């Protein structure tokens, strides 16, 4: 497994420190923020869009939908990593939506929180109308809650994306909800209950990435890229990664999996987004 620079996770960090860190950002001047009405949610939503420079509207660009983690929003990736510098070397559009603490699902408990439909329908429609994208070269990736969202959505819609990436994905949910009170993620429980329902086993099973991976057809699957820190403070995340990649291997899926030194932090994600982008570039050939 690939090794990279050392970064250890201090167990005593608060949840906010786990998800936001202190990594200095880069200039916001390269990012556009769009606001548009999302029919699936019945409200106005904002999305950050990072365009290649120079951007040529006559060229069709690959697109990466890059998802935030719990307590995050559409600004996190741009402000807490050097994503603009990394993407500046690529001919790629990066779309960073605000999905609140939705877990990227159509909520089992709140009718208007249809975030799967927002990400899979409303958002691409807006992006394709406003920007010049190559719909044959689409990827989705995310960190923590967003890593779960990327994998779950790709497994539910296997022909939509050609590349799927997860950094420190919360892949143990929703099946690990019962154990959440005993983990550093106990503050996640209200959002998990809102998204998946407290006792709605059928709904939870329909969004369980392990079960979804058992049902997919190999030939319809995209390429999966996983990375997680060996010092990740969410103790059930690492076993969940190993179990899911074992299942994908059994299903005949194409994937790449790395366990690298580091924790659940923005320093880690700032580092690990770079090889993810490189792998996406090679898979989509842009």
Would you kindly provide a written description of the structure presented here, covering whatever features stand out?
Helices cover 35% and strands 20% of the residues. The protein has a single domain, classed as Rossmann fold (3-Layer(aba) Sandwich). It has ten helices and eight strands.
CATH class: Alpha Beta
- Please tally the helical runs, counting DSSP H or I stretches of 4 or more residues: 10
Q: Strand content of the residues, in percent?
A: 15-25%
CATH homologous superfamily identity: Alpha/Beta hydrolase fold, catalytic domain
CATH architecture label name: 3-Layer(aba) Sandwich
Condensed summary:
It is built from ten helices and eight strands. With 286 residues, it is of the alpha/beta class. It has a single domain, classed as Alpha/Beta hydrolase fold, catalytic domain (Rossmann fold), CATH 3.40.50.
Question: What descriptive keywords fit this protein?
Answer:
single chain; 286 residues; alpha/beta; Rossmann fold; 10 helices; 35% helix; globular; disordered N terminus
SSE map:
Blueprint: H1 15-20, E1 31-38, E2 43-50, E3 61-67, H2 76-80, H3 83-87, E4 93-97, H4 115-130, E5 133-143, H5 145-156, E6 163-167, H6 189-196, H7 201-206, H8 209-215, E7 223-229, H9 237-251, E8 255-260, H10 266-284
Helix pairs in contact: 8-9
């Amino acid at each position: 497994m690939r090794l990279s620079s050392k970064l250890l996770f201090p167990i005593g960090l608060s949840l906010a420190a786990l998800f936001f860190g202190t990594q200095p950002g880069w200039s916001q001047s390269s990012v556009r923020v769009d606001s548009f009405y999302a029919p699936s949610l019945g409200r106005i939503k904002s999305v950050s869009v990072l365009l290649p420079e120079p951007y040529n509207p006559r060229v069709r660009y690959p697109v990466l939908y890059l998802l935030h983690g719990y307590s995050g929003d559409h600004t996190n990736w741009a402000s807490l990593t050097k994503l603009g510098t990394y993407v500046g070397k690529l001919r790629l559009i990066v779309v960073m939506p605000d999905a609140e603490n939705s877990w990227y699902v159509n909520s089992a408990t709140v009718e208007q929180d249809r975030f799967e439909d927002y990400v899979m329908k409303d958002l691409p429609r807006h992006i394709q109308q406003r920007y010049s994208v190559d719909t044959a070269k689409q990827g989705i990736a995310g960190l923590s809650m967003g890593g779960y969202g990327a994998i779950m959505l790709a497994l539910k819609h296997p022909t939509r994306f050609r590349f799927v990436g997860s950094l420190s994905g919360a892949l143990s949910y929703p099946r690990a909800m019962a154990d959440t009170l005993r983990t550093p993620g106990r503050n996640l429980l209200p959002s998990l209950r809102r998204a998946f329902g407290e006792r709605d086993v059928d709904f939870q099973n329909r969004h369980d990435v392990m079960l979804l991976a058992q049902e997919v057809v190999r030939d319809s699957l995209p390429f999966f890229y996983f990375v997680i820190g060996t010092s990740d403070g969410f103790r059930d995340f690492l076993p969940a990664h190993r179990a899911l990649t074992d299942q994908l291997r059994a299903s005949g899926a194409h994937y790449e999996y790395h366990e690298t030194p580091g924790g659940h932090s923005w320093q880690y994600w700032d580092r690990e987004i770079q090889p993810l982008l490189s792998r996406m570039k090679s898979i989509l050939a842009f």
